[in-house]
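### Sample
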Amino acid sequence: MALTRKRIGLYLMTTAVLTREWYINVLARIRINAFRIELVASSYEDLLSSAVVSVSCDAAVGNAVYMLPSFYNHDCDPNTHIVWLASADARLKALRNIEEGEELRICYIDASMDVDARQRILADGFGFECRCQRCLSGD
Ligand SMILES: C[S@@+](CC[C@H](N)C(=O)[O-])C[C@H]1O[C@@H](n2cnc3c(N)ncnc32)[C@H](O)[C@@H]1O
């Protein structure tokens, strides 16, 4: 394959862009914005067997980064929840009545933990100090 001026230019451009820092930055963005996909069971029996699988091994179908859901902020008392029905298509489900203009928020972690554990996991795993109403109230 001949090394044309164009090819050399492209090579220099990509090696300048694809640095170790660039790669780490991309991985960090994926890590913070990706959703773990776990398919919702369609029956009670499916729910039980999927729970068994979840406990005994890693049951995630995969991870995905979505355009819109990646903008949802976290709340330890969320008003919505993301579900996957039969595919990797994400659906947003309301957990209670939502007022017009109210921000849609999801929970990134297990909300049943106490405030200190939640803050630690959000800081270590997601890199931010949670300032949701529940955390601010110390609950
Ligand atoms: C997946 S992004 C959510 C969208 C982000 N706010 C934006 O404008 O692109 C996650 C980031 O949003 C911020 N964030 C989300 N929920 C938060 C919360 N409850 N308290 C403080 N910062 C939060 C943090 O900086 C976190 O790393």
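The two ends are 65 Å apart (CA to CA). This sample (SET domain-containing protein) is used throughout the tutorial notebook.
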